């Protein structure tokens, strides 16, 4: 006997195919960043445009409105599925199909142009393409905002419910304490710098072992090299990348741990949510909370770095560091460097705040693309006290704007804020955490995060995920208190 399909059943069957196609599009993006031959860039742009056309048509299909109107949710999980599909449909139907396809094509080819300009240190090679991307994103924002704030409309794609005004106010509260802490640390005696070469093969072997130590499942993922480390995919296929600098092994090791945090979030979601709207991380802020707590509160803790120090001695021999305590200070060295992804915990959020202000000005039209490099360099000198020495260390360092990811940057600091809250709650629940981390055992911490955050996927709204996990509303205070305590102890402040 054939089962009668309800409108909810029909909706979810349709959505499952849409989610599967979106995963295919994501895999094309992963391939472009890792293995695609450079000569295929223009063709890949057409491929991305074609699949985006299919996805946009599905996301705006008139049957969705009919099913959503008639569907009844049998339980809270189903109600959450309907909420997310309604949000996606409302958003997609505001964007013209030709604009969606053009954005997919232009941002796909822009990534290759950005990478070539970055390698050549030639900003002028990238600016015309960036101007085209920004014009398209402003057009998209206008369609979404429908008279409202353009930047808020873009940010909503990454952190539903957040607004630039709220984020800006939070940044204003955070900046004074970060600047005070930075000044105190930079006045203290600084740890020595590494003066040793660590071969690529050895770094990649240890990076793989670090991924395993943090619970990454290589049966459902893989580790590759890329220009800009990233995580891609969800469900049973969540891949990560890293990069290698032979004189700076922490670049590789901590970008690996960071991306493992992202991937483990996706891999930890309830398998019943596979290929549904709930089967992905709920927001980039919550996503970043996982990568940052893995990387920093766990991976850079003195307890874990003590284990890491012994591992590196066994693998690389004497590399000029005298003790676990000195190693912990080197790992947590505070310096006003150029590169956001390599920034210490004290400087990192200042990098994000700068980008937030610049991209808001670009989207609003207060800053024009030809003036962007000068604006970047002036702001960097003012915020960090160092003059940008080359474009690859300045405007060209991040891939985000070439991909059209305007509104994404503030979620990095929001993720740090969420991570601070989660770390406070985690420490309260697992008082012996340092004893375990000192053995290289992260399972209690990662298991807690999987249970409290990751398994829920998109079931709850972003802030609710954090408040339910922690037992209190998220605020920046736990992060700032953690930074003061950690760096105060490391630097004897």
From TrEMBL:
InterPro entries, per the entry: Peptidase_M32_Taq
Keyword set includes Cytoplasm: no
GO molecular function per UniProt: carboxypeptidase activity
Known role: Broad specificity carboxypetidase that releases amino acids sequentially from the C-terminus, including neutral, aromatic, polar and basic residues.
Native source organism of the sequence: Gemmobacter denitrificans
Known EC number: 3.4.17.19
Domain of life of the organism encoding this protein: Bacteria
Principal EC category: hydrolase
PANTHER family: CARBOXYPEPTIDASE 1 (PTHR34217:SF1), METAL-DEPENDENT CARBOXYPEPTIDASE (PTHR34217)
Annotated protein name in UniProt: Metal-dependent carboxypeptidase
